[in-house]
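User: My instructor asked us to take a sequence, write out its structure as C-alpha coordinates, and then describe one feature of it. I'm not sure where to start. Here is the sequence I was given:
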Amino acid sequence: MAHEAFVQLSCPECSKNWESTPSELPAHDENFSCPECHATRRMALFTRTDRDLENLKRLQ
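Assistant: Let's start with the prediction itself. The C-alpha coordinates for your sequence are:
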Protein backbone atom coordinates (compact mmCIF):
# COMPACT_ATOMS: atom_id res chain seq x y z
CA MET A 1 0.00 0.00 0.00
CA ALA A 2 1.56 3.28 -1.12
CA HIS A 3 1.44 6.33 1.10
CA GLU A 4 0.93 9.62 -0.67
CA ALA A 5 3.25 12.47 0.22
CA PHE A 6 1.97 15.68 1.75
CA VAL A 7 2.75 19.17 0.52
CA GLN A 8 3.09 21.96 3.09
CA LEU A 9 1.01 25.00 2.20
CA SER A 10 0.84 28.57 3.47
CA CYS A 11 -1.50 31.36 2.38
CA PRO A 12 0.36 34.53 1.30
CA GLU A 13 -2.61 36.63 2.47
CA CYS A 14 -3.73 35.31 5.87
CA SER A 15 -0.70 33.11 6.73
CA LYS A 16 -2.86 30.02 7.33
CA ASN A 17 -0.65 26.90 7.31
CA TRP A 18 -1.87 23.45 6.36
CA GLU A 19 -0.92 20.39 4.37
CA SER A 20 -2.58 18.50 1.58
CA THR A 21 -1.88 15.65 -0.78
CA PRO A 22 -0.90 16.66 -4.34
CA SER A 23 -3.88 14.75 -5.76
CA GLU A 24 -6.23 17.08 -3.84
CA LEU A 25 -4.67 20.20 -5.35
CA PRO A 26 -4.76 21.89 -8.75
CA ALA A 27 -1.65 22.03 -10.93
CA HIS A 28 1.04 24.48 -9.79
CA ASP A 29 0.15 26.96 -12.56
CA GLU A 30 -3.62 26.93 -11.97
CA ASN A 31 -5.56 29.21 -9.62
CA PHE A 32 -6.27 28.10 -6.06
CA SER A 33 -8.26 29.79 -3.29
CA CYS A 34 -7.31 29.70 0.37
CA PRO A 35 -9.86 27.69 2.37
CA GLU A 36 -9.58 30.26 5.19
CA CYS A 37 -9.64 33.73 3.59
CA HIS A 38 -10.50 32.77 -0.02
CA ALA A 39 -7.58 34.74 -1.52
CA THR A 40 -6.92 33.41 -5.01
CA ARG A 41 -3.41 32.99 -6.38
CA ARG A 42 -1.49 30.55 -8.54
CA MET A 43 -1.15 27.25 -6.67
CA ALA A 44 2.66 27.60 -6.70
CA LEU A 45 2.39 30.68 -4.45
CA PHE A 46 0.73 28.61 -1.70
CA THR A 47 3.57 26.08 -1.41
CA ARG A 48 5.56 26.78 1.72
CA THR A 49 9.02 25.91 0.37
CA ASP A 50 10.72 25.28 -2.96
CA ARG A 51 10.81 21.61 -2.01
CA ASP A 52 7.03 21.59 -1.54
CA LEU A 53 6.64 23.14 -4.99
CA GLU A 54 8.97 20.51 -6.49
CA ASN A 55 7.00 17.73 -4.81
CA LEU A 56 3.70 19.17 -6.05
CA LYS A 57 5.00 19.23 -9.64
CA ARG A 58 6.59 15.78 -9.38
CA LEU A 59 3.66 13.98 -7.73
CA GLN A 60 0.80 15.28 -9.86
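For the description part of your assignment, you could build on this observation: The helical segments are 50-59. Try explaining in your own words what that tells you about the chain.
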